[in-house]
Amino acid sequence: MKEDKILKEISAAQLEGLRIGNAQNQEAKTGVTVLLFENGATLGVDISGGGPASRETPLALPLTADNPVHAIVLSGGSAFGLAASDGVMRYLEERGIGYQTGYAKVPLVCQSCIYDLGLGRADIRPDKEMGYEACVNAEKNQPLCGSVGAGTGATVGKLYGMARAMKSGLGIYGAEVGRLKMAAVVVVNAVGDIFNPETGQKVAGLRAEDGTGFADSCSELYKISRQKDLFDQEKKPNLDMNTNTTIGAVITNGRFSKAEMNKIASMARNAYGRCINPVGTMADGDTIYAASIGQEKADLNMAGTLAAQVMAKAILKAAEQRDS
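-> structure tokens emitted (324 positions)
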């Protein structure tokens, strides 16, 4: 594609002021990914779907105070996993990082979680210790993809539950256009199938009943919805359960306002539509944060377009770099 000659792939570690760390429990199949912003970040957010599990996300909304956010936490554990932010806040407080209230510095930390309780052990979830560990690991700033961090328990193609689902994970991709840098970090835990938008090829998703290939989630959804035995538990689709969520963030060294970062987040969501089908259902709690951590001047439309492109690349990495 012509734009690929203009885009240059970079590591997310090349964004100054960003550090990414993971911690996980491989037995329980759950984990935490933390994005630390050394100098704070101007944050926006886009939420679609029906079941987000989140903490302090309103900090990214345009009508709230324009204070810098110090970290984004992505985790497993469903709403239980929100405890991971306690460890992140402790790590930041120990280093004197936070919003000065006059009596204490309060770290501003936003978090979103996926539901991964059905893969490993439902009684072990990310906690404050795991959140703290992810921050310590972020000091190395060596971003990893696959079944690590919040992607440890991620799965896709869950229309019929875990029996026919496929493993997914954490995806990270970065690119630059001139001096503008953009990176995407995403945990793909969708009810739908995952496609490469450049080729149309399905790369992960609902398995066929005989296990020899893929079934089509959309076709199965249409088929099930016409059946009289819709409420037969063996055939009932997974769409009435908030157990599927694709959560992520785009980070740029571009200088943008809070309102502009909300627009970039909404444009980044186009990647979900390009790569995931079905997407944004009431069973998905899809969330995208957008963080500005630099001073580079850039066109908003170009930045939002780039955000969608790097997010699509990150989704593919999450789906392709997984456990077999």
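The longest strand covers residues 30-47.
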